[in-house]
Amino acid sequence: MQDSPVIKYHFSLGHQVKDIEKIEHTIKELESIWDIDEKSLFQLNLVLEELISNTMFYGFLGMEEGSIDVDLSFDGSYINVIIQDNAKAFDPTVEAKDTSGHSLDERAIGGLGIMLSQRISEEMNYQRHGDLNKLSFKINTKRND
Amino acid sequence: MINISKQHTADYELIEVRGRLDTSNADLLDEPVQQLIDNGCNNFLFDLSKLEYISSYGIRIFVKLLRHKAKVSMVVRSDSVFSILKMTGLEDRLNIKRDINEAKKIFTQITQ
Fold first, then answer.
1. Direct distance between the N- and C-terminal alpha carbons of chain A, in angstroms, rounded to an integer
2. Which positions in chain B touch A145 (Cβ < 8 Å)?
3. pTM value?
4. Are A141 and A77 in contact (CB under 8 A)?
């Protein structure tokens, strides 16, 4: 059996919240070039929006410049995602495990986007390289839930 | 693109949301919902049968209503939207139905 060819896609965003619209445009473009189901693209859209909006609202707070680079690849089963930005250090894999201070309801609201991202994605990994956050994860397009 | 319409009925506030409910436009739903909460409205039926996409910024509005002890019911047709709402673990409290008549029953049962 032959492996499916890996199809790569790259896009960049600035630090302003209005740049989030670029995610929706990217998803529409992927719909036309990747042979992928609607639900997987919906999930990719959601995880990108949650993580990138979090960076824009909090990571870039007080910063006059900033950039986010997103690398996507699809091998027929998994969408592999790498997000790199020069915002303040933020590890969403730790954020999701935070149990301090807040009530359950407060945590559910504040961390809802991160929680959904964690539930949809697999093998989420965070690294800090110098001034850069690097987050990688996978979305399994064959998963049924 | 989002389209929101609302209608007052004897039993509930009917709010229809079409299109995409995300970071860029969640305020357009949050503001009228907050006004209704401030006016003492307690029963909310959301017709999301033509909602194509929702992110946490939209879901937070429903969570806020639950925190205000409001009774919420909703009609959802999109499998993807349904799947995301289910992931929140609030499926039962949000009374998610596939059919609007089923969603309406939640309120008629209360008032009877």
1. 27
2. 83
3. 0.90
4. yes
